[in-house]
Amino acid sequence: MSGSVVSPIDRHPPATVTSLRDGIADVLAENYRMLKVFRDIRWPCKYRRSYGVVHLEIELEEASPNA
User: Fold this and answer.
1) Structure pTM?
2) Residue-wise pLDDT tens digits, 15-32
């Protein structure tokens, strides 16, 4: 397809679990409701914003009550 633009969100699945200890999610910056979900659950995570996408690295092991 000529002239098409590939955005960062198209290159990665919306969310993946990389192990039982952490996860990765890419959320569109204007998706305030989804970003609020991640903020409200209070899991330890790192946020990085790039090209209208918020990239989250979530530490699930520390958040788990059974860890």
Assistant:
1) 0.57
2) 666 656 778 889 999 999
Name the nearest CA neighbour of 12 among 42, 51, 66.
51
- Closest among 43, 6, 46, 5 to 26, alpha carbons compared: 46
62: tokens are 């520390």
DSSP code of residue 14: S
Residue 60 has pLDDT above 60, yes or no: yes
Residue 2 lies in a domain: no
Q: Is residue 12 over pLDDT 70?
A: no
Distance between CA 21 and CA 24 in Å, rounded? 11
How many domains does one find in the chain?
Answer: 1
Structural tokens at position 65: 């009550």
